[in-house]
């Protein structure tokens, strides 16, 4: 009998194809939105989690000042080369310590110019970032000590300025200095903060300080701990050393901060997951609205088909059968909407994933849930109109024009 | 006037025993049927006539188990219909009754065959048997070759034939026809009446409401309602 009811429902939907489609539009949009939001959200979370691995192993991030509300970091004094040396020589379980100073610069080659980020650092930077070279070489000991204007360029800079030409050995103008390209970094893609990591130029820190910044400041230090080391312990050691070097004693608060990047990424992954849930919930509200749309049209349909219902009751349909028919019709309608919505949502998520550069992850659980919700919406919002149809008085219904 | 056949109510197919039907309450109430006694036996062909408001439609609704008397008893095959609930009456209808309406009342955009199959679908008959019996019913009304046509592709007479096929496909004891020729021209009306007479000869009891004397003349018994009473109840010449 249920099979028959489904057949009757399909026949009725086919008879009113356009109206049926408009009826389910709400559910299509609702389900589509849920699927798209959750799929994009999951992709973003996966991307952030994947970045954890890309960030380099056991990375600690040291900066002057404190993070957080009401804490000015600009007052705190920057680090210098002696801090880096001290960390290298005194900290146990540390693989690499990279000084970092950055500034926005314009790089010029011939007629091409590009606004990019100049990073003053040394070879340890490549270790901490787990970043390899696509071509050329890294800085030589002598270049670092002398502060020679040699640079390693990121893939974006390479593509924009050199196109298909070989950049090695060519000199770029960076602000007012000329520097020779000695290497090209491997492509790394977007960071989890959404910036293009390949849009950068590395030069020796000493060259940066003397010829670009005109001071001896180091604004950040990246520390890479040994693989088996406990990063919490390394963090404590860094804090102790820097407090000592910066003359912070007793209960005085640190004027610098050390953060484990792993925790940062985990926090971000947690945030995106919460955001995904929120977006999904908002989208679910539109599914509810879609359900009300179905109820509306089903009620109109019952009124419009009063006579038909009367005929059906007169020729032998039982109350339950009329109820089943309209209920099944509502459910079949909303399932149709669900299927279209799932396809639409996945399509949108696929496009968005390509646009945002996040992986396109299809989650069967969310698809099943959305499908189930669509069916539930059909049952809940179909029941009232269906019951109304079933309770019609056949005499009245037959007289209805 | 002595009511026909009330002496043996247990054997009657349809028996009204002092049936009254009142619509509305208090001063504004209307007494559509007033203590009506009536008996219709298996195999009869009855025409119910009367001006509008005479109670003939109310009587038809009660006979069709679509409505129940306010007082008095309506016995169908000896069963007191008034004591049944909605579902009980629906079951009785689909077991014993077939309906034909003035407006044909076919379901649109659905083929003739599907229309005829519908009562069997609701009775849970398997698809292949349904198809066989429906084609047979269409054959009985002479429309077998139109089985796949939609109602809109059929003439009024053909639509009414489909409706009759739909009414008889479940092999009812009684065929109830409410102004079956009301929307048809004289020639087509005659054909429909011939069909009903044929079916009656094949042992289906036919009860028909009509206001056209010509059509009523095809029946073997004419009951005339006036003001909620049976005014006359005559066997026609055809029976004699």
UniProtKB/TrEMBL annotation, chain B:
<keyword id="KW-0472">Membrane</keyword>
<dbReference type="InterPro" id="IPR003439">
    <property type="entry name" value="ABC_transporter-like_ATP-bd"/>
</dbReference>
<dbReference type="InterPro" id="IPR027417">
    <property type="entry name" value="P-loop_NTPase"/>
</dbReference>
<dbReference type="GO" id="GO:0098796">
    <property type="term" value="C:membrane protein complex"/>
</dbReference>
<keyword id="KW-0067">ATP-binding</keyword>
<comment type="similarity">
    <text>Belongs to the ABC transporter superfamily. Macrolide exporter (TC 3.A.1.122) family.</text>
</comment>
<protein>
    <submittedName>
        <fullName>Putative ABC transport system ATP-binding protein</fullName>
    </submittedName>
</protein>
<feature type="domain" description="ABC transporter">
    <location>
        <begin position="14"/>
        <end position="240"/>
    </location>
</feature>
<keyword id="KW-0997">Cell inner membrane</keyword>
<dbReference type="GO" id="GO:0005524">
    <property type="term" value="F:ATP binding"/>
</dbReference>
<dbReference type="InterPro" id="IPR015854">
    <property type="entry name" value="ABC_transpr_LolD-like"/>
</dbReference>
<dbReference type="Pfam" id="PF00005">
    <property type="entry name" value="ABC_tran"/>
</dbReference>
<keyword id="KW-1003">Cell membrane</keyword>
<dbReference type="InterPro" id="IPR003593">
    <property type="entry name" value="AAA+_ATPase"/>
</dbReference>
<keyword id="KW-0813">Transport</keyword>
<dbReference type="GO" id="GO:0016887">
    <property type="term" value="F:ATP hydrolysis activity"/>
</dbReference>
<dbReference type="InterPro" id="IPR017871">
    <property type="entry name" value="ABC_transporter-like_CS"/>
</dbReference>
<keyword id="KW-1278">Translocase</keyword>
<dbReference type="GO" id="GO:0022857">
    <property type="term" value="F:transmembrane transporter activity"/>
</dbReference>
<dbReference type="GO" id="GO:0005886">
    <property type="term" value="C:plasma membrane"/>
</dbReference>
<keyword id="KW-0547">Nucleotide-binding</keyword>
<dbReference type="InterPro" id="IPR017911">
    <property type="entry name" value="MacB-like_ATP-bd"/>
</dbReference>
């Amino acid at each position: 009998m249920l099979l028959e009811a489904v057949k009757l429902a399909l026949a009725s939907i086919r008879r009113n194809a356009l109206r049926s489609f408009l009826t389910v539009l709400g559910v299509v949009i609702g389900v589509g939105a849920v699927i798209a939001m959750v799929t994009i959200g999951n992709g973003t979370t996966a991307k952030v989690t994947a970045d954890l691995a890309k960030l380099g192993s056991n990375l600690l991030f040291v900066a002057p000042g404190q993070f957080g509300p009401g804490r000015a970091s600009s007052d705190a004094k920057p680090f210098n080369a002696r801090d880096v040396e001290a960390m290298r020589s005194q900290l146990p379980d540390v693989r690499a310590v990279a000084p970092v100073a950055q500034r926005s610069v314009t790089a010029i080659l011939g007629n091409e110019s590009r606004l990019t980020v100049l990073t003053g650092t040394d070879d340890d930077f490549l270790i901490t970032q787990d970043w390899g070279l696509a071509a050329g070489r890294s800085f030589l000991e002598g270049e670092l000590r002398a502060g020679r204007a040699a640079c390693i360029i990121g893939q974006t800079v390479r593509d924009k300025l050199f196109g298909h030409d070989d950049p090695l050995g060519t000199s770029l103008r960076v602000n007012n200095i000329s520097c020779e390209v000695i290497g090209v970094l491997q492509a790394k893609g977007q960071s989890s903060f959404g910036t293009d990591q390949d849009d950068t130029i590395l030069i020796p820190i000493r060259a940066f300080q003397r010829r670009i910044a005109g001071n001896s400041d180091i604004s950040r230090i990246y520390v890479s701990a040994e693989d088996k080391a406990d990063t919490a312990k390394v963090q404590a050691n860094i804090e102790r050393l820097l407090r000592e070097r910066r003359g912070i004693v007793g209960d005085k608060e640190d004027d610098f901060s050390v953060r484990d990047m792993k925790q940062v990424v985990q926090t971000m992954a947690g945030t995106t997951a919460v955001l995904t849930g929120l977006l999904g919930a908002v989208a679910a509200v539109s599914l509810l609205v879609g359900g009300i749309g179905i109820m509306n049209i089903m009620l109109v349909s019952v009124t419009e088909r009063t006579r038909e219902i009367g005929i059906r009751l007169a020729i032998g349909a039982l109350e339950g059968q009329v109820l089943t028919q309209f209920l099944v019709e509502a459910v079949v309608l909303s399932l149709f909407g669900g299927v279209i919505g799932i396809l639409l949502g996945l399509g949108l998520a696929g496009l968005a994933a390509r646009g945002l550069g996040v992986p396109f992850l299809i989650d069967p659980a969310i698809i099943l849930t959305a499908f189930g919700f669509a069916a539930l919406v059909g049952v809940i919002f179909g029941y009232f109109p269906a019951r109304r149809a079933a309770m019609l008085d056949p005499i009245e219904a037959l007289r209805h024009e | 006037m002595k009511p026909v056949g009330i002496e043996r109510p247990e054997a009657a197919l349809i028996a009204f025993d002092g049936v009254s039907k009142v619509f509305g309450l208090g001063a504004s109430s209307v007494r559509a049927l007033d203590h009506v006694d009536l008996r219709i036996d298996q195999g009869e062909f009855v025409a119910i006539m009367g001006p509008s408001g005479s109670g003939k439609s109310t009587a038809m609704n009660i006979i069709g188990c679509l409505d129940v008397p306010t007082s008095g008893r309506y016995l169908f095959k000896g069963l007191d219909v008034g004591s049944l609930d909605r579902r009980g009456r629906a079951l009785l209808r689909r077991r014993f009754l077939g309906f034909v309406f003035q407006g044909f009342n076919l379901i649109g955009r659905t083929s003739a065959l599907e229309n005829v199959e519908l009562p069997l679908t609701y009775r849970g008959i398997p698809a292949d048997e349904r198809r066989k019996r429906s084609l047979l019913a269409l054959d009985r009304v002479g429309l077998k070759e139109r089985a796949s046509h939609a109602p809109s592709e059929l003439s009024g007479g053909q639509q009414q034939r489909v409706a009759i096929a739909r009414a008889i496909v479940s092999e009812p004891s009684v065929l109830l026809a409410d102004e079956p020729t009301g929307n048809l021209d004289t020639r087509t009306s005659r054909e429909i009446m011939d069909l009903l007479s044929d079916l009656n000869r094949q042992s289906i009891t036919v009860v028909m409401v009509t206001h056209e004397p010509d059509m009523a003349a095809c029946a073997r018994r004419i009951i005339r309602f006036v003001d909620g009473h049976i005014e006359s109840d005559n066997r026609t010449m055809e029976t004699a």
